Amino acid sequence: MTAPRLDIDLGAVAHNTRTLVERLAPRGIRVTGVSKASLGSPSVAAAMLSGGAGGIGESRMENVARLRAGDVHAAFMLIRSPMLSQVDRVVRDTDLSLNTEGVVLDALSAAAVRQRTTHDVVLMVELGDLREGVPVDEVVDLAATVTRRPGLRLVGLGTNLACRSGVVPDQNKMDELSELVEKVEAAVGERLTVVTGGNSANLDWALATSDVGRIDDLRLGESILLGTEPLQRQPIDGLRTDAFTLVAELIEVKTKPAQSWGDRGQTAFGHEPDRGRPGLVRQAIAAIGRQDIDPDGLVAPPGMAVLAASSDHLVIDVGDHDVTVGEEVSFGLGYGALVRAMTSPFVTKHEH
């Protein structure tokens, strides 16, 4: 089979989705499965839906188009604020979008009127992570303007934490969002039906708290795809961590000095070089590199370690493993490594 490749176990994706859906349902929280890290794979999205996800979240319209072309039937949530250049596509191909800017809402309204349809809107609230979001003291006023824009329907509020700044989605943050929901409802005179409290980083809070407030939706990607939580990257009990495996072929196996020699500048990617340690190392090179993966996000097999990577070469300490040229080595992946491998045209995707 071709290497490098990603082996994708769709049964594991469905299992992880089903497990999280079943754990969150008693708390009144539904799951939006986020397929963006799979590059909008129709098979991965279908596995999420078969596991009980209530809809699919995507950040790029190109992925939404791929899902629709792949005959995926679901409610689609655009989880990145729409680009002005794509509002017509957003209204046509998604059911709901997350928004922060009045000018974008104006454009969505005009697009919806042109298409003689109604587009659902969730306003994102800034609660401290400093990525996207409307300041708390501006949310009520902006929400009121949404209800006056033709072609738009205000259905809820949301927030995103633990991405740019790693801010933890704790009880105080979620209580603040719930209280803001009630203020908006009082101002617009309508009940909000979507309160999307965040991503996989919310799971510790959601599964431990006795009061989820108005939170009724979580956008889950990493926990479903990798079986881990983003705050500490620890495995989640009962979830599978082997849904995605990266397989690479060895193109060189030699014993070499573990320490480099000669005058040195920066490495190919601008890093200060590590001189290494004294002694020898049984070193292998796999035919994959930074153009395809984030080497810091790879989990090597027991007894092996990733030493370095350039554009096209991954250097591995294979320890006592008796490997040979042409042999394949399998790696686990973190979220960043998965995203880059899915995006690389040089990595074959094998779904089963």
Overall description:
With about 350 residues, this protein is an alpha/beta fold. It has 2 domains: about 10-225, TIM Barrel; about 245-350, Beta Barrel (Elongation Factor Tu (Ef-tu), domain 3). The protein has helices spanning about 10-25, 40-50, 60-70, 85-95, 100-115, 135-145, 170-190, 205-210, 220-225, 335-345; strands at about 5-10, 30-35, 55-60, 75-80, 95-100, 120-125, 150-160, 195, 215-220, 245-260, 275-285, 300, 305-310, 315, 330-335, 350. The strands form 2 sheets. Strands 1, 10, 11, 12, 13, 14, 15 and 16 form an 8-stranded mixed beta sheet that branches. The chain has an 8-stranded parallel beta sheet with strand order 8-7-6-5-4-3-2-9. α6 links the parallel β6 (about 120-125) and β7 (about 150-160). α4 packs across α5 (about 100-115) and α6 (about 135-145) runs parallel beside α7 (about 170-190). It is elongated, with a radius of gyration of 23 Å. It starts with a strand and ends with a strand. About 40% of the residues are buried. The model has no long low-confidence stretch (mean pLDDT about 95).
Distance between termini?
Answer: 14 Å
> Which value, in Å, is the CA radius of gyration?
23 Å
Tally of separate domains:
2
Please identify which CATH superfamily of the largest domain we are dealing with: Alanine racemase
Q: Supply the number of helical segments.
A: 10
Q: What is the ordering of alpha helices and beta strands?
A: EHEHEHEHEHEHEHEHEHEEEEEEHE
Binned strand content: 25-35%
How many extended strands?
16
What about the largest sheet?
A: 8 strands, mixed
* CATH architecture type of the largest domain: Alpha-Beta Barrel
Kindly report the CATH topology of the largest domain.
TIM Barrel
Unreliable stretches (pLDDT < 50, length at least 5) are: none
Instruction: Find the structural class using helix and strand composition.
Output: alpha/beta
Helix content: 25-40%
CATH class of the largest domain: Alpha Beta
- Average the pLDDT over all residues and give the rounded result: 96
